[in-house]
Amino acid sequence: MTQKPWITTFLNGDPRICMDVAGEGSLLVFLHGIGGNKINWHLQLPEFSKHFKSVAWDARGYGESDDYEGDLEFSDFSRDLLRVLDHFAVQKAHLCGLSMGGRIAQDFYALFPDRVSTLVLCDTFAGDDETDTRASRSQSIEEFVESRIRPFLNGADPAEHAKKRGGLLLAPGHSEEARRRSIEASSQLHVESYIKTVRASATFSRVDNMKNINVPTLLLFGDQDPLTPPRVGEYMQEHIPHSELVIIEHAGHMTNLEQPEAFNTAVLSFLHAHGYMTGL
């Protein structure tokens, strides 16, 4: 059996946070989406750990991280992420977030801009903008909440639900491997925490802060993303100063799973271009 290139460790506190960690160097944190967990980044950790201390976390209430009492304030994720940076004793980190993870990265920058080196925002959005219909995902807030939580309010089992929904956010013609990896993470949802996350994230917005982002920022979107299509990336590029937009071909909402080589190359090239690594 091939040995995993990462170790799984826990950050004690309330709640306890689980992380897969690999490599040495500047800290790079991978942030998963609302239906995933840290295993969504296992196609990235081996490559990025050659250049960075690479960390993929389970957000609070996900994967092997603890659940928590009470309602969720979306910025609780950012405060947990601050604990991660402090745990590794670094002033700044590179943040790579997909979907909800990209929104966490944007929130973290708004709250702690001096703790961020670069942002990689994948298949995500900042929030609704009444002045521009390109800004938000393809579903309304009401549709998003209802479609995500209704099955679980009706007693759905996460594993069975994941099998039924497997592939819905992927591009047509996606590989069986991408589908399997997507289902594997979604099967592990903590139902109560997931419902709290959906509700907290539904109306959360950092649209007003995009103009304040002052670190190198890569926007990465799948050309066939059914939830946050490329128009969202074009909108964000117009509002985030000096940001770069890369569209990954033959990819849906899970670009890192569907086209891992293209994803890894795009992100590494971006980091290299901005002087954060030598050689490729």
* Outline type: globular
How many strand units? 8
* Mean pLDDT figure: 94
Helix content: 25-40%
How far is the N terminus from the C terminus? Answer: 28 Å
The description of the largest β-sheet is: 8 strands, mixed
Please explain how this structure is put together.
The chain has 280 residues and is an alpha/beta fold. It is built from 10 helices and 8 strands. The protein has helices at residues 45-48, 76-87, 100-111, 141-153, 158-165, 176-186, 191-202, 230-239, 255-258, 260-273, and strands at residues 7-11, 17-22, 27-31, 53-58, 93-98, 116-122, 217-222, 244-248. The protein has an 8-stranded mixed sheet with strand order 1-2-4-3-5-6-7-8, sandwiched between helices. Helix 4 runs antiparallel to helix 7 and helix 5 runs antiparallel to helix 6 (176-186). The radius of gyration is 17 Å and the shape is globular. The model has no long low-confidence stretch (mean pLDDT 94).
Topology diagram in text:
Blueprint: E1 7-11, E2 17-22, E3 27-31, H1 45-48, E4 53-58, H2 76-87, E5 93-98, H3 100-111, E6 116-122, H4 141-153, H5 158-165, H6 176-186, H7 191-202, E7 217-222, H8 230-239, E8 244-248, H9 255-258, H10 260-273
Parallel strand pairs: 3-4, 3-5, 5-6, 6-7, 7-8
Antiparallel strand pairs: 1-2, 2-4
Helix pairs in contact: 2-3, 4-7, 5-6
